[in-house]
Specification:
Radius of gyration of chain A: 25 Å
Mean pLDDT of chain A: 83
Structural class of chain A: alpha+beta
Strand content of chain A: 5-15%
Shape of chain A: rod-shaped
Distance between the termini of chain C: 60 Å
Order of helices and strands of chain A: HEHEHHHEHE
Distance between the termini of chain A: 25 Å
Chains: A alpha+beta, B mainly alpha, C alpha/beta
Number of helices of chain C: 32
Strand order of the largest sheet of chain A: 2-3-1-4
Oligomer: heterotrimer
């Protein structure tokens, strides 16, 4: 999968455009049935079921979130404990140095903060974002059309293949880093 | 899912066109009028605040007994406003309320700006803001002093700070695909360049969508308890103290309910304007607004219940001082404020029992405004009436806000609307990619899109 | 370890330097006090009322930060030169053992005089100039500048205590509005500053001429010391007709006159409250303003103190405490602190005191079997006089509900305690046309009861026989002046144009040559040819004779700051008598004391007197004084007087008194104990009258008598007679200074003159609504305790049954048992070493307010001005709450000093986000000023509302010379910072350092013996109501008292565990009549 991804935007390929998600899904299934893996799917919104059709694995983001959230929680407590018990204990209103119930709100907030930021960070990492040097293969993709980019085949075969599986429009993409 | 969420048989392409129009066109006259008005209001506030910094807090109405006044009222008010956004986008998302798609972008934006406004007040209300702005943050300073983690004010710093950050992230994540489509529509090189950067080079590949959906879901999951926590923590400022009328365990839920209430009211106010001004009636439909009004009715009654409950607890506690605090609240020198609060928050929303009322734009606009006023006074009642007569009768006083209090309050509204107007000018006010899914589903391509 | 030092550093309260690391504790007292001084002398404020004016937010100044370089840069300023001059003066003075020498050059401080150690205070004994009572004072000077006046413990009058006026007098010394040089030509309108040489030249030639011809020269002064009187008489003897007249506006001439008539001995006797079991005051406010309040309060409270019961801890089950208390009964026209502290008080019309007195006499005589009165019983005059004055008729007339029973009761208890009772009367509020009669009646009563010579001692001293004292003398002077027969008049220490309106002013115009010697410009000086600036009492020599046998010395503690010259020095200069060359007033005084006081050549006597401040000798007791029936001719038989209208009663406030304190911001801002009003005088009327007239608080009413009309804002005051309106004298000054001018309304014009007597009260007045509103600046709006566990007062009977009784509060707001330990969620911190606490005995506190001022002066607490008091932003760290209970006609008044309670579980601390409010290891609740960011959360969460917030930069309100009044041991707070009582923590540290030096050390700290250190409020309290000490020492006074059955804590169930314990007030009245 990583190889495909990386190649897909280094090299060019042939782009087939579809008008609605149903055709797109069928096309993807067909491609997979022909044992083809080196293709990319693009859509204006998340099409349900596409990842199954394409056979993508689940995202790892939840684990990242879990790790960082629990880190935020524990470090949150330790920091409060350290400042108010170890580093400089002060008698504040007769409360014990380790007034742990008072530490809970901050612990919670730090949990969420760490978790949330980690999630976003992970998203950027996994989605290879930001990457502003590249851009949309076709402006209509972010509007209302769907596309499959087949790479690693010779253009004729690719375009034939795409038209047979029902692409409305087929176009060769010259590998260029910019729009 | 039978109901129609998008009217006028709009296609995804129309959607793009409609939503992007205000962004791609030169701003209308109304926009300029509003913007300048907001600017002027903020200017006044800033001017008064500057003078206040130079002379001291004495220019405000505060006194020995009333250590807090309008500024803290505003803080709580704005944080409260800030609740609807994340609530709509997170909680309704988890509950798969697809009708949220029409309004969540605006609501989230409102949240961000409301919190930005709220954050002004804790800083400027302190005696020495030029230190407060640093010293409330635990960093290793040259005196190796730390902060007091037992203080609710420190909890506030973390709670509101976190809430702001996470909301911002959540909001931006939602924006990425839409920014991408704005980029692809852009003709003007500068705009194209800007949106290219903002959209981080999003192309909408299925792999990205996969991670995107997961991240969005998790963020929603994280935001949900966060929303509930923020105003609970804000309520601790009062509940944790010993002041009669503040020292009560009902405050956290009471505050959260109030926050949602006021937040939704503000959303209604803003949406009614936005959909009129930008002609988005087909995406922000009456159905959306009716749903909002139902929530207003519900939360309004929760708040009413809280008011009643306070009295019961005070009576049940058997503590004469506590009893006095509540009696004084309703029948003391500030009775006027109390009854404004009750009228606006409990009585007025009852009109939404009637479907016709729920679907009447003018009426709901009026009601939402009244609710906002009522909720401001709720905070006023809580902060001021509890303080002005506490334990020792010898220090009972009366608090009267001054021109500075009001002027700076006005300024905060200016500040809020400046940001909001910039938002509607430069960013898509509707979550296009989400709505597209909905359209697709309604155009019969649904069967794949339905979860 | 480092931490401990850090907190230690905080404790020291020397957090002047923002840059200073909390950790480094090398900061010494010197460097700090140095810094304070430096920063003070570059500050010029903009006047109290200008506080609203724009002031730039100067980081350097806003913070406590101060780099030496600023100091050098600023050192070009005038203020600093002034300061150094005075420093030099201080040095010079200290070096020459306080002999006043003119300072010719600035003396650099590097040459340190042995007396002065920077950072260590020098104390000098002198006489307080606050009023004419002449209490003994100790003046605390730092680096040569006086910073506080305290009572002199060795002085027999005030025994260490001092009143509010005395405490505040330090501000008069530094008042920027003082006269700074002699003036000429005031009356001609061409007023100009002049030089002393020029003035002397003119004046001396004038006096030469006058001496030549048969001239009338008069000297009008306030009550002045023996030496000064002698000097003046010498001066006057050089003229063919010279007289000196002494006039104190509030002085009761009638007492002197009455004693002349009754005993042939014109004098003010010594009232022995310490010997009296029963005191009946007919109008006299002896605890606040009458004659010698501090002395009286101290004597009186002796008989009020309740024993510190040993079986305290048993609480209610404790054995009944057998005990007695001096009883105080008061009949008065306006509510004074004396009436407030009375066990039984009756509001009457001014003038009715006489009838009450005679009704009492009637009963006393009737009841047989009094030894001393047996002679009276057969006495013709009395038999003819008294019968009419039956309690029934009198009570009916003066309008006291079943007052006849009361009078009967009082009479019988008078008889019971004959010889141990004391009846007094006087003061402006009850000074009417029959005041003389009243005094005679009082003398009669005291003689009847055999109190003369026991509770009233008249000494065979000079008295007033050979002196021209009082209004009779003044009216004679006025007559002479009117006749145009006075050639020259010297006025000193008096302000007759203000205190004797119209009359004196008109007469003064007819005097060709007038010299006024005064510290301030005043109403009289406007009419003078020469206004000669005199120094403040703290700048000049003098002496006083408060009563025969007590000679009190007044020595300067700082060289005159302005071009002033003592009245006596001028007189010496002008006197045409041969004297050794260059002999000064100081030399004169010394020789006077040598010859007249010590009557011996022993030099050490003088030194000793300077050290102790007072010289005592036993005065010759008068032989048994016999009451002369002839005096009774002045009294008529009973006749019902029909006064249907409203009657006016003028009184003096403890703060402003006769108006002399008018320019003192501390006094102006001291809330009047009974009305809580600052900065103004109000028209006090009874609630019932207010209802009848339909007026509310702050409504402005027009008050008129035939010859004068004024407008005054209304204050509705419980405890007034429904047909009496009262207002305070001493306000509405016209030319005294920024603070005093046109503050309040002048009521001296209401003074009525009958023959050679003047009286302030008793006039029938008319009221008219004006429709105007004037907001009085009051510091307490709600005066009922609402049954909350804040105060506690019981009757003596209840106390005997159960000393721990608490009746006036909601039971569910009190702990089940007194001193019961309430459960806490957490293990409590333990305090090794000393732990500070305080007890305040509500039974002793008379609400006089001297602690409030003492605290302000000690802790650099600023006065904020009328407008900010209106906005409830007064800064008093220690305030006195007053609560009324009972019916508004006859309220029970209770005063409660309220200050930071230094709670163990302080609610203010956990809520502070930046740890500016924390506890130290001595149980003190600290406020770290330079850490505070001013969220005011602590203030909200403080149940006692004793924290004070700096809404503005108040220190800017200290004008040029006022900056010298700062106490260098106490941080000056900046804008935006919270502050509050520190338990005078700098004093604690001082005492600990001292103890350390003396080798008394316990766990690393100096151990302060019980009583070795006193807080400012405790030190000055005339009734010793406040006791401070170590709670961890079971035998310290404070821990004993806090175990007393009367002990309670405010809002105990809040479980804040205050370090301050209050002791229940006990009223000595039978419940039946209470």
């Amino acid at each position: 999968m990583e190889k495909a991804m990386s190649r897909s935007h280094k090299e060019g390929g042939v782009l087939g455009l579809f008008d609605d998600p149903v055709r797109l899904l069928e096309a993807v299934r067909k491609l997979r049935s022909r044992g083809l893996t080196e293709f990319e799917v693009f859509s204006p919104y998340a099409v349900e079921g596409i990842e199954k059709a394409q056979g993508l694995k689940r995202s790892l983001i939840p684990f990242v979130t879990l790790v960082f959230a629990s880190l935020g929680c524990t470090l949150g407590f330790y920091f409060q404990y350290w400042t108010s018990v170890i580093d400089w204990p002060l008698n504040v209103g007769g409360k014990p140095y380790n007034s742990w119930p008072a530490f809970v709100p901050v612990m919670f907030e730090l949990t969420v903060l760490a978790g949330g930021l980690a999630t976003f960070g992970a998203l950027l990492l996994f989605a290879r974002l930001p990457n502003t040097s590249r851009s949309a293969l076709d402006p209509s993709i972010t509007r209302d059309r769907f596309a499959i980019l087949v790479s690693g085949m010779n253009p004729e075969d690719a375009s034939n293949l795409l038209t047979t599986i029902g692409a409305r429009e087929v176009r060769a993409i010259v590998p260029r880093g910019w729009f | 899912m039978a109901e129609i969420l998008i009217t006028g048989g709009k296609s995804a392409a129309d959607l793009d066109a409609d939503v992007a129009r205000p962004v791609e066109r030169f701003p209308t006259r109304i926009w300029w009028v509003c913007f300048l008005a907001a600017l002027a209001a903020f200017g006044l506030g800033a001017l008064l605040a500057t003078d206040m910094f130079q002379r001291g807090l004495g220019v405000l109405g505060l006194n020995i007994t009333n250590g807090w006044g309008v500024f803290i009222v505003n803080f709580v008010f704005w944080v409260g406003i800030g609740h609807a956004g994340t609530l709509i986008s997170a909680i309704l998302y988890l509950f798969r309320q697809r009708w949220r798609t029409g309004i969540n972008r605006t609501a989230e934006a409102m949240t961000i700006f409301a919190v930005m406004t709220a954050l002004l007040f804790p800083v400027i209300h302190t005696g020495r803001p030029w230190y407060a702005i640093f010293w409330l943050i635990p960093y290793p300073n040259e005196r190796s002093l730390w902060v007091n983690f037992r203080s609710p004010l420190i909890w506030d710093v973390f709670a509101v700070g976190t809430y702001f950050t996470i909301s911002l992230v959540f909001w931006f994540t939602g924006l990425i695909p839409d920014l991408a489509s704005l980029r692809d529509r852009a003709k003007h090189p500068v705009r194209k360049a800007v949106y290219t950067v903002l959209s981080l080079g999003w192309r909408g590949s299925s792999r990205n969508w996969l991670h995107y959906e997961t991240a969005y879901l998790i963020l929603a999951g994280l935001s949900t308890p966060l929303v509930l926590s923020v105003h609970s923590v804000v309520s601790f400022d009062f509940a944790v103290s010993s002041v009669p009328g503040w020292h009560t365990t009902i405050f956290p839920p009471y505050f959260v309910a109030g926050a949602i209430f006021s937040g939704f009211a503000m959303v209604v106010t803003l949406l009614v304007i936005t959909r009129e001004v930008f002609g988005l009636k087909d995406y922000i439909t009456l159905d959306h607004l009716e749903k909002m009004n139902k929530i207003l009715l519900a939360t309004g009654m929760m708040v009413g219940y809280a008011y009643a409950c306070e009295f019961f607890i005070a009576w049940y506690s058997g503590n004469p001082i506590e009893r006095f605090a509540l009696t004084n609240r309703a029948f003391g020198p500030y009775a006027w404020a109390y009854w404004i609060m009750v009228a606006c928050n409990v009585a007025v929303p009852q009109i939404f029992w009637f479907k016709r009322a729920r679907r009447n734009l003018a009426l709901m606009f009026l009601v939402s405004l009244l609710v906002n006023i009522g909720m401001w006074f709720e905070r006023f009642v809580i902060v001021v009436t509890s303080l002005h007569r506490d334990f020792l009768p010898s220090s009972w006083r009366y608090y009267v806000p001054t021109f500075y209090d009001w002027g700076i309050t006005l300024g905060s509204f200016g500040w809020f609307f400046i940001w909001f107007l910039l938002f509607v000018r430069f960013l898509p006010v509707i979550a296009m990619s989400e709505v597209k899914a909905v359209i697709a589903e309604e155009n019969g391509e649904g069967h794949v899109a339905v979860a | 370890m480092l931490r401990r030092n850090a907190t230690h550093a905080i404790n020291k309260g020397f957090l002047m330097n923002e840059k200073a690391k909390f950790k480094d504790h090398v900061e010494t007292r010197e460097s700090v006090s140095g810094l304070t001084q430096n920063r003070q002398h570059r500050q010029h404020w903009r006047g109290i009322e200008d506080l609203e004016s724009k002031t730039t937010c100067d980081e350097r100044v806003t913070e406590f930060d101060q780099s030496p370089f600023d100091w050098i840069r600023d050192s070009t300023e005038m203020a600093r030169r002034e300061f150094l001059t005075i420093m030099g003066a201080g040095v010079a003075m200290a070096t020459f053992g306080c002999a006043r020498r003119p300072v010719h050059k600035i003396i650099p401080y590097v040459i340190k005089p042995e007396e002065v150690t920077p950072g260590i205070a020098n104390w000098y004994a002198t006489t307080c100039g606050g009023c004419s009572a002449a209490c003994g004072a100790l003046v605390k000077t730092r680096e040569g500048r006086p910073i506080k006046v305290e009572g002199n413990p060795k002085h027999p009058l005030n025994r260490g205590a001092l009143c509010a006026r005395g405490q505040a007098s330090i501000f008069d010394l530094y008042d920027p509005d003082r006269l700074k040089a002699p003036l000429a030509g005031s009356r001609t309108g061409k007023r100009r500053q002049t030089s002393w040489a020029e003035a002397d030249q003119a004046i001396q030639t004038r006096f030469k001429e006058l001496a030549a011809k048969k001239a009338r020269v008069r000297v009008l002064s306030g009550r002045s010391g023996p030496a000064s009187r002698r000097l003046v008489s010498e001066f006057l003897s050089t003229f063919s007709d010279g007289e000196q007249i002494e006039y104190e506006p509030l002085f009761d001439d009638e007492i002197v006159e009455a004693r002349r008539l009754c005993f042939g001995h014109p004098s003010i006797p010594r009232y022995r409250f310490d010997r009296a079991d029963l005191v009946i005051s007919l109008g006299a406010d002896f605890l606040g303003t009458w004659l010698s309040p501090v002395e009286f309060a101290r004597d009186w409270v002796g008989g009020r103190k309740l024993p510190n019961a040993p079986n305290a801890l048993n609480g209610p089950n404790a054995l009944p405490v057998k005990t007695t208390m001096t009883k105080l009964i008061s009949f008065e026209p306006t509510l004074t602190i004396t009436g407030s502290n009375a066990d039984e008080r009756f509001a009457i019309r001014p003038g009715d005191e006489l009838k009450v007195a005679l009704a009492l006499a009637h009963e006393v005589v009737k009841s047989a079997g009094i030894r001393s009165s047996s002679s009276f019983a057969k006495n013709k005059a009395i038999v003819n006089l008294l019968p009419g004055y039956t309690p029934a008729s009198v009570a009916k007339e003066i309008g006291i509900a079943n007052g006849d029973l009361a009078i009967k009761r009082f009479a019988s208890s008078l008889v019971r305690s004959s010889g141990r009772s004391l009846i007094i009367g006087g003061g402006p509020q009850s000074q009417t046309s029959n005041s003389l009669a009243l005094q005679i009646a009082i003398n009669l009563l005291n003689s009847l009861l055999g109190n003369e010579g026991v509770t009233i001692e008249s000494d065979a001293g000079t008295g007033f026989a050979d002196r021209k004292v009082g209004f009779s003398a003044v009216s004679k002077l006025i007559a002479e002046m009117d006749a145009g027969s006075v050639d020259a008049l010297i006025v000193h220490g008096a302000n007759p144009v203000y205190t004797i309106p119209r009359l004196f002013e008109d007469a003064l115009k007819k005097v060709p040559f007038v010299i006024v010697m005064s510290e301030y410009e005043n109403e009289t000086s406007r009419h003078a040819d020469y206004v000669l600036a005199t120094p403040h009492p703290l700048e000049s020599w003098g002496d006083a004779e408060p009563r025969p046998g007590i000679r009190s010395i007044q020595q300067p503690v700082i060289a005159p700051m302005h071009s002033t010259r003592a009245f006596e020095d001028s007189i010496l200069l002008w006197t045409e008598v041969r004297r050794p060359k260059g002999s000064s007033w100081y030399d004169y005084l010394r020789s006077f004391w040598k010859n007249d006081v010590f009557r011996s050549d022993r030099e050490w006597l003088w030194e000793e007197t300077l050290r102790t401040g007072v010289f005592q000798s036993t005065p010759a007791r008068a032989k048994r004084v016999e009451f002369r029936n002839s005096a009774l001719d002045r009294l008529g038989p009973y006749a019902r007087t029909e006064n249907s209208g409203l009657v006016f009663s003028a009184y003096a406030k403890v703060s402003i008194l006769d108006g002399r304190g008018a320019n003192n911001v501390l006094l102006q801002e001291l809330p009047e104990p009974t009305t809580a009003i600052t900065w103004d005088n109000s028209l006090n009327i009874a609630p019932s009258l207010a209802k009848k007239l339909g007026v509310a608080e702050n409504d402005v009413l027009e008050l008129s008598i035939p010859h004068h009309v004024v407008e005054l804002p209304v204050h509705i005051q419980p405890g007034l007679h429904p047909s009496v309106v009262s207002a305070a004298l001493g306000y509405g000054r016209r030319s005294v200074g920024k603070a005093g001018d046109s503050t309040g309304v002048d009521l001296y014009p209401f003074m009525t003159v009958k023959g050679s007597a003047r009286f302030y009260s008793g006039q029938t007045v008319r009221l008219r609504k004006t429709g105007k509103i004037y907001r009085l600046a009051s510091t307490q709006w709600h005066t009922v305790a609402e049954k909350r566990p804040i105060i506690n007062d019981i009757t003596l009977a209840q106390y005997r049954k159960n000393p721990a009784a608490s009746i006036h509060t909601e039971p569910e707001l009190r702990p089940a048992r007194p001193g019961q330990k309430l459960p806490t969620l957490w293990p409590e911190h333990v305090y090794q070493g000393q732990r500070w606490g305080m007890t305040i005995d509500l039974n002793s506190c008379i609400g006089c307010g001297s602690c409030v001022i003492a605290c302000q002066v000690e802790n650099n607490v600023p006065a904020v001005g009328r407008e900010l008091v209106r906005n409830s932003r007064e800064m008093h760290w220690l305030r006195i709450d007053r609560y009324f209970s009972g019916v508004p006609e006859r309220p029970d008044v209770l005063f409660q000093p309220m200050l930071c309670q230094h709670c163990d579980l302080a609610p203010c601390e956990p809520v502070c986000p930046v740890l500016a409010s924390v506890h130290n290891d001595e149980g003190l609740n600290l406020q770290v000023y330079n850490r505070c960011v001013g969220t005011r959360y602590c203030e909200n969460n403080c149940p006692y509302k004793v924290r004070r917030f700096n809404f503005f930069d108040y220190w800017k309100s200290y004008k040029t010379t006022m900056n010298l009044a700062w106490n260098p041991d106490v941080t000056v707070r900046s804008r935006g910072v919270m502050e509050k009582c520190t338990f005078c923590q700098h004093r604690i540290k001082g005492a600990q350092d001292q103890a350390k030096d003396n080798g008394k050390v316990k766990n690393g700290k100096g151990y302060v013996e019980d009583g070795a250190m006193k807080t400012a409020c405790e030190q000055t309290c005339p009734t010793d109501a406040i006791v401070f000490g170590d709670l961890n020492d079971p035998n310290s006074r404070v821990s004993k008292l806090s175990r007393d059955p009367r002990a309670f804590r405010v809002l105990e169930l809040q479980n804040t565990q205050p370090s301050i314990t209050y002791l229940t007030k006990v009223r000595n009245k039978d419940d039946a009549h209470g």
